Amino acid sequence: MKTIQLKTNIMCGSCIEKVTPVLNKEFGENNWKVDTQNPRKILTVIADNADKNDVINAVQKAGYKAEELPA
């Protein structure tokens, strides 16, 4: 399994509801989570079939932004 972590603008439960159908379809239920308590709103995706660009595109499809975490 590969773990991908990205900074997002997914801020709250309502935002998570909006991205859930897209992320579940792309990566599977329970294979992702958003830490809305973290100031960077970290999205973590754990999946074999994912790469960083796939995750960014899926988040954008749901109407939000995702980007690489600063080093």
Quickly describe the structure:
This protein is α+β, with helices and mostly antiparallel strands. 35% of the residues lie in helices and 28% in strands.
Task: Give an overview in words.
The chain is of the alpha+beta class. The chain has helices spanning 13-27, 52-61, and strands at residues 2-8, 32-35, 42-47, 66-68. The protein is built from two helices and four strands; from the N terminus they run βαββαβ. A hairpin with a 6-residue loop joins strand 2 (32-35) and strand 3. Helix 1 packs across helix 2.
Please write out the topology.
Blueprint: E1 2-8, H1 13-27, E2 32-35, E3 42-47, H2 52-61, E4 66-68
Antiparallel strand pairs: 1-3, 1-4, 2-3
Helix pairs in contact: 1-2
Estimate the global geometry from the Cα principal axes.
globular
**Percent helix:** 25-40%
The CATH class assignment is Alpha Beta
Beta-strand residue fraction:
25-35%
Uncertain regions spanning at least 5 consecutive residues? none
Number of strands: 4
Radius of gyration: 11 Å
Tell me the count of domains.
1
